[in-house]
Amino acid sequence: MAFKAIIAGGGTGGHLFPAVAVGEEMRRVRPDAEVLFIGATNGMEAKWFPRSGLRYELFEVHGFTGKSPLTRLRAMWKFLQALSRARRLLRSFGADVVVSAGGYASAPIAVAAIISGTPLILLEQNTRPGLANRMLWRFAHKICVGFADAAGTFSAARVEVTGNPVRFSKMPQAVRWHTGPLQVLVLGGSSGAHRVNLGVLRAFKILDGNVLQVAITHQTGEADAGLVEEAYRALGREARVVPFIDDIAAALDCADLIIARAGAMTVSEIALAGRPAVFVPYPFHRDHQQEHNARVLARVGGAVIVADDERLGENLAQILQRLSARPECLQEMGRHAHQASIGDAARRIVHVCFQVADNHTNTRHSVAELGNRRPELVKGTRRNEVEPVSRGRAKLAEALSGVEGKRVCHQVKRNEPSKEVCGVRQDKEPVA
To answer: Residue 231 and residue 214: Cα distance in Å, rounded?
Structure first.
């Protein structure tokens, strides 16, 4: 009988691409496996899935945080509609496991899995878990975390440190010593980052009279592509400006230095590629999620962190000038970044999925046999062993309703030690 999995995640590339990587690895290991992807109608997957050839469904769901009461009420109504559809879909598809890659697109099918008793596996890409995983992890069979820093948030018995599945299988080469222009890759995330785009342009304007030789590839997002392209033209600098980079492996392979936001997948891809980075974490997340991600590489000397503030352009210009003069430092940073990476993440996660599904099937058969032979065992001492998730389902409504009142805010540890990177100390504030 073919293995069946539902994999949900989307909204941004940081949730979509890990989901796709896991599904592709499942079908590589078991070619007869059936994989159904779940996304949101307003996420980037709505455009990406139709071109992919993958089997998918899209739910109309929206985020809850940072919204007005009326918008939250509408979002809750859409969620309940999506949950009803998810439960029907789960019954008709008959999944062996449900994998939630995070984001609001994954919540309806994850809750449907909990209600039905289908094994649930959560992927947590960030060092600080998002809202959905903070609500749902107690009902999951396993939580696969991308960074070891995230493991302490969850029960040790359920956590697997697997790393984050990246968008490439062939590893980029190590940073090479060459005499040509410095190859700078700018990544604002799958949707771009307007403030990073402006900061980078400001930096190159400051360096306009400098003899710094650079070749620029700049992923801008859809909204800023024209603006950025025109700005480089006005500065007289040649640059390859694109809304989105599909072949991230090729882009990383060419890069000597990367300027980027610090989303979990960006940090993981840069680390695995062994590239030095200047991270500009998104400053408005309530848990400083991206700053925590960036510090995974900064504290081992693989990256420099620059604050997204009014001096972003000036600080980037200073760092670019300093690093471009020391190519040996870039190579050292790349080596340190790679040492902090976790490879083969998709294979590790798929192994967990198969193991959980097999254990669930065996447990179900054991319960059936016990029920036929000695019903008193099912009603007595064995109940806690064979029905932990079913027992937890009764508390789901309480957990969902109480999460806002019990939210845990994670504080950035300013005294966390970091290595000196090319003369820049980062052990007090995340600025150059």
So the answer is: 16
pLDDT digits (tens, 9 = 90+) for 276-334: 999 999 998 878 899 999 999 999 999 999 999 999 999 999 999 999 888 889 999 99
Same domain, 187 and 83: no
Name which residue leads in pLDDT, 365 or 194: 194
Cβ-based neighbour number of residue 166 at 10 Å? 24
Largest distance between two CA atoms of the chain: 85
**Residue 326 shares a structural domain with residue 396:** no
What's the burial of 355, exposed, middle or buried (CB within 10 Å: 0-12/13-18/19+)? middle
What CATH number is given to the structural domain containing 221? 3.40.50.2000
CA dihedral 404, 11, 31, 252 (to 10 degrees): -120
pLDDT bucket at 393, cuts 50 / 70 / 90: low
How far apart CA 263 and CA 282 sit, in angstroms, is 8
Q: Are residues 160 and 211 in the same domain?
A: no
β-strand 56-59 against 34-40: which pairing, if any?
A: parallel
Residue in the structure block whose two tokens are 């400001």: 202
- Indicate the number of domains in the chain: 2
Q: Which residue intervals of 340-387 are DSSP H helices?
A: 345-373, 375-379, 383-386
Question: Is-contact 143 133, C-beta < 8 A?
Answer: yes
Share of the chain above pLDDT 90, in %: 62
134, 151, 407 from 400: Cα distances, Å: 10, 22, 11
Give the pLDDT confidence of 405-414 residue by residue, as tens digits: 443 334 444 4
User: Considering just the CA atoms, what is the radius of gyration of the chain in Å?
Assistant: 23
Are 159 and 267 members of one domain? no
Looking at residue 181, its amino acid is P
Q: b/e map of 288-315 (b: 16 or more CB within 10 Å)?
A: bbbbbbbbbbbbbbbbbbbbbeebbbeb
Write out the residue range of the structural domain in which residue 295 sits. 182-339
Whether the pLDDT of residue 172 is over 70: the answer is no
Among 319, 339, 359, give the residue marking a domain's end: 339
| Structure tokens given for 388 | 């932990």
Q: Mark whether 348 and 281 lie in a shared domain.
A: no
